[in-house]
């Protein structure tokens, strides 16, 4: 099992300077919703952005510590336009 704080820490290390929010979707500790706002996503497709998030979590996804991961990824400009 992995905690939202562990996911956040892992992603902060992989994507420094990003805004990251992690929520336990069901309360069971294996379904998470992750929001990442990062300048690292600029010029990247949505698939590339999601790969940048999945990559650091590969081990937890592989051993099923994370069973489901809902991602929302934005560049800072996209996030501003949404009216964060």
Description:
This protein has 84 residues and is α+β, with helices and mostly antiparallel strands. It has a single domain (4-78), classed as BolA-like (GMP Synthetase, Chain A, domain 3, 2-Layer Sandwich), CATH 3.30.300. Helices cover 38% and strands 24% of the residues. The chain contains four helices and three strands, in the order αββααβα. The protein has helices spanning 4-14, 46-54, 58-62, 76-82, and strands spanning 19-24, 31-37, 68-74. A three-stranded mixed beta sheet has the order 1-2-3. The longest helix is centred in the first third of the chain and has 11 residues, at 4-14. It is globular, with a radius of gyration of 12 Å. The N and C termini lie far apart (31 Å). The relative contact order is 0.22.
Tags for this entry?
84 residues, globular, GMP Synthetase, Chain A, domain 3, alpha+beta, 4 helices, 3 strands
Strand content: 15-25%
State the order of secondary-structure elements, H for helix, E for strand: HEEHHEH
Unreliable runs? none
CATH superfamily: BolA-like
Give the C-alpha Rg: 12 Å
Profile the largest sheet.
3 strands, mixed
- Helical fraction: 25-40%
- The best one-word shape is globular
Structural class: alpha+beta
In whole angstroms, the N-to-C terminal distance is 31 Å
The total count of helices amounts to: 4
Total domain modules: 1
Give me the CATH fold name.
Answer: GMP Synthetase, Chain A, domain 3
Q: Would you count the extended β strands for me?
A: 3
Question: What's the architecture in CATH terms?
Answer: 2-Layer Sandwich
- Mean pLDDT equals 95
């Amino acid at each position: 099992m992995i905690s939202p704080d562990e996911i956040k820490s892992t992603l902060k290390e992989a994507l420094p300077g990003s805004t990251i929010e992690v929520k336990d979707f069901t309360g069971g500790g294996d379904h998470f919703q992750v929001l990442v706002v990062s300048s690292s996503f600029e010029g990247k497709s949505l698939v590339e952005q999601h790969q940048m998030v999945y990559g650091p979590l590969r081990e937890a996804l592989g051993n099923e510590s994370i069973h489901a991961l809902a991602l929302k990824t934005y560049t800072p400009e996209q996030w501003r336009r949404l009216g964060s």
